Inverse folding.
């Protein structure tokens, strides 16, 4: 009996079967540029981000001591941007994972109503995600991020809107290229991290990168945060820059999502949501 079972199953160990599995996943990688991008992306981003942090700290060893909780405040605000992006993109992808987009848009739901729902759901998810961490920072580290006062509301709102813009672009790309592109939800947001000046001023970056950084609302927000913590000054010029950039980016991202949705519906992609 065991010999018969062995004959049906072939050898107990086969490099050919192992090679077949490897070949299958190699074909998946070869046909999915987001997966290939992700493989090289994370080590590169980590190297760039921590390289800039190290460079800044080497020349400013007393920087952290000048403002209690500056790094913790930066981490909490960064998480607002991170969660706002995921709040949009993951909410949209959950509909794709459930293969529910086709059913949703058989209903009277309009694409722009979907955009509104995604952004409001992102606000809810971000508030739920960030609030416990912000509250725990007080007993654990004696840092009360709410002491930033009214500027905190401005920082939160601008990072939230920028996260929405990134999330809408990611959702559009996932709709266009399928679930094989879902890793873009993480790739896109961490692409802006080294340029946002989360843990160091923008002038730490090479001169040729600084104009690129200033084109991001997040750079204005984190510079504004440091201005409040170090100098007790709320810089309205930085706020105005962030608001103007966010208005442009949100309009472009919404337009891109709506256009991509129109193309997807015309091509029947709402019902073909695989990889």
């Amino acid at each position: 009996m065991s010999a018969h079972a062995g004959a049906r199953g072939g050898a107990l160990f086969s490099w050919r079967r192992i090679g077949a599995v490897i070949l299958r996943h190699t074909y998946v990688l070869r046909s999915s540029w987001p997966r290939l991008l992700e493989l090289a992306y994370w080590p590169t981003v980590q190297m760039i981000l921590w390289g800039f942090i190290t460079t800044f700290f080497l020349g400013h060893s007393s920087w952290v001591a000048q403002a209690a909780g500056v790094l913790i405040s930066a981490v909490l605000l960064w998480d607002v941007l991170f969660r706002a992006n995921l709040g949009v993109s993951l909410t949209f992808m959950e509909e794709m994972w459930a293969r529910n987009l086709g059913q949703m848009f058989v209903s009277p739901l309009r694409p722009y109503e979907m955009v509104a729902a995604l952004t409001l759901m992102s606000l809810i998810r971000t508030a739920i995600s960030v609030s416990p961490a912000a509250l725990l920072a007080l007993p654990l580290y004696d840092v009360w991020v709410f002491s930033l006062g009214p500027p905190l509301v401005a920082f939160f709102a601008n990072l939230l809107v920028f996260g929405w813009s990134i999330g809408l672009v990611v959702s559009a790309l996932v709709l266009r290229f399928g679930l094989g592109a879902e890793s873009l939800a993480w790739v896109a947001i961490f692409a802006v991290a080294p340029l946002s000046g989360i843990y160091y001023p923008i002038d730490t970056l090479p001169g040729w990168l600084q104009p690129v950084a200033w084109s991001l609302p997040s750079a204005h927000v984190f510079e504004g945060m440091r201005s409040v913590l170090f100098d007790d000054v709320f810089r309205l010029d930085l706020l105005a820059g962030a608001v103007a950039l966010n208005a442009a980016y949100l309009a472009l991202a919404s337009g891109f999502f709506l256009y991509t949705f129109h193309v997807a519906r015309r091509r029947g992609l709402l019902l073909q949501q695989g990889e």
